[in-house]
What does this fold into?
Amino acid sequence: MTVRPMHTVAAFDAERVRRDFPILAQQVNGHPLVYLDNAATTQKPECVIEAIANYYRRDNANVHRGVHTLSDRATHSFEQARHALAGFLGSPRPEQVIWTSGTTAAINLVAYSWGHSTLKPGDRVLVSWLEHHSNIVPWQLVAAATGAEVVPIPVTDDGEIDLEALAGLLDARVKMVAVNHVSNALGTVNPVAEIVRLAKSVDALVLLDGAQSVAHWPVDVTSLGCDFFVMSGHKLFGPTGTGVLWGREHLLEAMPPFLGGGEMIDRVGFPTTTFSGLPFKFEAGTPNIAGAIGLAAAVDYLGGIDRRAAAEHEAALLARTLELAAEVDGLRRIGRPAHAAGIFSFLLEGTHPSDVGMLLDQQGIAVRTGHHCAQPLMDRLGIPGTVRASYSIYNTQEDVTRLFEGIRKAKRLFA
Ligand code: C6P
It folds into this structure.
């Protein structure tokens, strides 16, 4: 599959990239918008918005059903989108790409389908203390139903997975190690190769939650060595309500359907029904056709970006952030991972995170505050939550400067 760039950015230029995102050119509360909530959701380039609008303007029809021209066009674009995502993720076959509504739905699919059919009393699923709730709760639900146990992998005070502790937890009871690629709360980039190597030493499967990694650098599921990889389209410049479960073919083949209904069947009868093969076995009901097409447009857009340069640009934004943070009395960075993606979590002495967030918003600066759907991690670190600034390809050094002007103003107001 070849990705055809819509346009090529010769040298990485955040100002140029920025102009592709119409939402960024607005004032919020009387100030130019500084959007630093990219870990929650990224903004969408014009080409993604256009792809969705054009689909509804010209091609809208249901897929895999009709003999008419519009249905044929919709089906073609929808399946082309699957090919695009397969190429983007380095999947050997497009059939290994299952459309979901996002990371949460993808993890639930694995937990229910694989978990219910495989886990037995006494089996263990390891998840780290760094996980988002969506990589904890589905496993707890399946554990409650099967008698398996969910065991947390310790993390260090710096916010890194404790690999020695992980090694100590591994034995024949462990059937699944489910961890994120990048922590949404702290930005920690987890050492996937080492985690996979350890998990494989006891023949456990590895599910990698890539919700926070795919937008920051190219991901190749084959070289990562994981068994399942999950992601959300809306954190990758695509629309909400889209996502992917990627899995090894033999595992997906062996897993029973999760949801039943149209699309996923071969033949329905009484008393028995037979099911479709991959990927349709896991795609009951009318899918998010426009969403898949929009996500493919986002992937196409990224094909025109020098992603290595973009990653270096984001690293430079984080480096400058840490320099400026060191100059602010009473500012405490939360988590100090050796390898971090463009996420900066902090607390300001004597203030509540949500008050800081509101004061920043008044200055047109969008950040997220709270527990970031990572309550166990907040408990582990002994804090109620953080203020989180998260960077993307369209953020600039000017945004970093504005963030710290905002922080200093908040500090003065609370003094
Ligand atoms: N994190 C954040 O602000 P969904 O909602 O299904 O698209 O993604 C869930 C999810 C799973 N794993 C990780 C690592 C995530 O960061 C998220 C979403 C957002 O941090 C919303 S809570």
About this structure: Residues 39-40, 102-104, 132, 134-135, 180, 184, 209, 211-212, 232, 368, 372-373 surround C6P (CB under 6 Å). The chain has two domains: 14-38+306-414, 52-302.
